[in-house]
Amino acid sequence: MPGTVVVGTQWGDEGKGKIVDFCAQDADVVVRFNGGSNAGHTVVTGAEVFRFHLIPSGILRPETLNLVGNGVVVDPEVLLAEIEELKERGHPVDNLRVSERAHVVMPYHRTLDGLEEELKGGLKAGTTLRGIGPTFEDKAARIGVRVGDLLDEEALRERLATLVPMKERMIEAYGGQAGLSKEALFETGRDWGDRLQAYVADTSLLLDHALKQGREVLFEAAQGTHLDIDHGIYPFGTSSNAVVGSASVGSGVGVRHLNQVIGVAKAFTSRVGTGPFPSELAGEEASYLRDKSLGEYGTTTGRPRRIGWLDLVMVRFAARVNSLDYLAVTKLDVLGGLDPLRICVAYEHDGETLREFPASMRVFGACRPVYEELAGWEDISEDSWVGAVKRGYDELPGEMRAYLDLLSHETGVPVGLVSVGPAREATLELRGT
Ligand code: GDP
Ligand code: IMO
Ligand code: MG
Question: Which domains does the chain carry?
Fold first, then answer.
């Protein structure tokens, strides 16, 4: 199976970074294909914790080529800082390449992100303020700057001559203070180009070569299905496609190379940002999960994540639009100590039971969760969980296996990976068994 895609099934932060790093042990290439530095993917190796915003989560495997595909919007400041940090921590990044077709997040995109959020009122998504929306707006409007332009002084100068006055008018119209300098932006762009030059490549071609040689490729999504611009909770999601189809478009290979799809599902639900959240918890249970799970603060923004019970209407929808082969279920350890547990299997809306996710936010906002109640399992130490997964599936608590059975039954997708801790060793592979 040379091409495996890893997608998020919820609202992001499902643990994609951990799962991609784990699967990268068998991969020759890892490619990020969507989003930008709004993503925050955590990888834990031994005592070290890494948080990647743009660099693919396979970077810690030195034999694996890591590609930032054309579908990613690249903020060079963030990318260069990540490269520097990795080098300082003793991890060379000679195995990194960035698509010349990827769009660049310019300083004015961040400014516009903030201004748009202020004006959006009830449509505000609570963005990461990383300039993501405005960069994708420019890409679609064909007024963007691409990574390749940073290496071509003439193209860059020409683009900025046209774009800067347009952007100034936009910023002013939105009530901001423009004051952009074409020359300063040109110098910044050229400097980025100089520093990134060694990494810039035709990543689609590199992928094609690898696939023709039968190499294993992992496609890494950012965000989650329910943040996807088409399939997510519009207008509260993000500006790119986070579903499996985007792996082809955002990396430049045909769909026949997407042979297997893994959906990462957190054992409960979290959300950073605004919008309805039917299974949301308040009070003690939310604080218990958030505080126990150190990761439940936004990796990119540090905001506390909103927490809720596992919502299988969401995961069922993700199974459909991504044609999932397997689920990778993460953070099961974090639920330990809560009893009973609840799983949302349907919504109640206006006296009717909905099993499918609604498109309308007005409908979604009025949905009440229909829960199944299950017995919880014990809260045990990280080492004990690692010991349990080493001994195999049957050694996991019976209540946890019942929880996974319900998940699988309700979504129609088998569980292929079980994660009970941030570390690589806290992972149980069931695929093929
Ligand atoms: P991503 O955006 O999908 O890559 O997820 P994030 O990295 O933003 O958030 C996931 C958080 O959960 C990170 O802090 C991970 O280290 C952590 N994590 C992943 N899997 C597990 C798990 O099975 N158990 C626990 N306790 N933490 C996990
Ligand atoms: P990873 O890859 C969680 C959310 C933001 C906001 C909305 C739009 O780590 O799973 P944007 O900055 O994209 O315009 O914000 O999307 N969001 C995420 N939430 N995880 C992410 O990425 C996210 N990327 C964007 O909080 O509600
Ligand atoms: Mg994240």
Answer: 1-98+202-433 (3.40.440.10), 103-196 (1.10.300.10)
